[in-house]
Write a structure and sequence with these properties.
Length: 357
């Protein structure tokens, strides 16, 4: 019995909380450094490092490793035991608040446990203007990609007057010596963010939203996340069509060098004067020496349906397609977890305020 009591004290101690939390932080740090959910072969092909550690410590799927699951279970058990082992005496005003928020901690842990074993996810790649249908938890979900939106911002260069004295005058408000914003007419707008206008439906229930990477669409127990996008363009070079993806190298028979195209530049641009404009679809073609040179040189900009010429070569963007990668996740406990966590923070704050008073 003394051994069992000692074991209980270790499990419910603050030291166990700190140690298990530090180990969990190490796991999360490793999960941030190493890509998750890819195979070891894919990691090697991408030029990944520390192959021995990645293979033997399961660093590419670390959140499903036995070590992580054991540490997470130990941390959860420790919090539950700490919640049951209250140190505030009955009759103290903080007793009831402390009792409530400790029970809420157990509720949050229970929601996490439910979420771990009930969540389901599928990844969709949908063409702009198209839709995909998926069945999760015996429910048919239809996801429409109404529009894909990319936003840019003009990126002018900042020039200063020459000379130390002139620069100091500019800093203190002398307009004749102030730095100037110079916008190169040939410069390209700087990519800022991308959004997707998505509509999800199940039976008669419909919901639409413009989603971002950190702003998903929530639909009952389902959440639609924006993962990324892909593009395919048809480029006419000297009258011949080349179907390529951004940064995909290709050659043109009879023309020196190796070519590659930028991503399609198309969407909204925020101007320096805070106005917004629509950019006509275009791509930037780059070329490098076929003899093994590594320096890419901008060759020309080509607009949709408009011929651009350089070095006797005619280039035009014929057409393009845009695809968005979406994650559809079913997680019935996520809403419960969110509200329990919100109420938990309120009661913990009240307990601290009463202690201070």
């Amino acid at each position: 019995m003394p051994t069992l009591y000692r074991f209980y004290n270790i499990l419910s101690s603050a030291g166990t909380t700190v140690i298990s939390l530090l180990i969990l932080c190490a796991f999360y740090l490793a999960g941030t450094i190493f890509p998750q959910g890819i195979s070891l072969e894919e990691y090697k092909m991408a030029g990944g490092r520390f192959i021995f550690l990645a293979e033997n410590l399961r660093l590419l799927n670390i959140f499903n490793s036995p070590a992580f699951l054991f540490t997470a279970g130990l941390f959860s058990l420790n919090l539950i035991l700490c919640s049951l082992n209250l140190s505030v005496k009955n009759g103290n005003p903080r007793f009831y608040l402390t009792k409530i928020y400790h029970m809420l901690i157990i509720g949050v842990l229970a929601a996490i446990f439910i979420s771990t074993f009930t969540w389901r996810e599928t990844v969709l790649e949908i063409k702009e203007g198209g839709y995909a249908q998926v069945k999760l938890n015996n429910k048919d979900i239809k996801v429409f990609l109404k529009k894909f939106i990319v936003e840019y911002i003009e990126s002018p260069s900042l020039t200063f007057k020459k000379g130390f004295t002139e620069r100091v005058k500019g800093i203190f408000g002398n307009s004749s010596n102030a730095p100037l914003l110079i916008l190169d007419q040939d410069s390209l707008p700087f990519y800022r963010e991308f959004n997707a206008e998505v509509q999800v439906s199940a039976g008669t229930d419909v919901k639409s939203k413009i989603i971002q990477v950190n702003s998903p669409l929530r639909f009952f127990s389902y959440t639609i996340y924006l993962f990324g996008f892909d593009q395919v363009m048809n480029i006419l070079i000297n009258g011949k069509n080349y179907r390529v993806k951004p940064d995909e190298e290709f050659i043109v028979p009879g023309v020196d060098g190796i070519f590659k195209s930028s991503a399609i530049i198309n969407g909204k641009v925020l101007r320096v004067d805070s106005s917004e404009d629509e950019i006509s679809p275009m791509v930037v073609l780059s070329r490098k020496d076929a003899g093994g040179g590594s320096n890419w040189v901008k060759f020309l900009k080509a607009g949709k349906g408009t011929d651009s010429k350089a070095d006797g070569i005619s280039v035009a963007l014929s057409d393009y397609e845009q695809y968005v990668t979406l994650s559809v996740r079913y997680d019935p406990a996520v809403g419960i977890m969110k509200w329990l966590s919100f109420v938990l923070m309120i009661f913990m704050s009240l307990s601290v305020i009463i202690k201070i008073i």
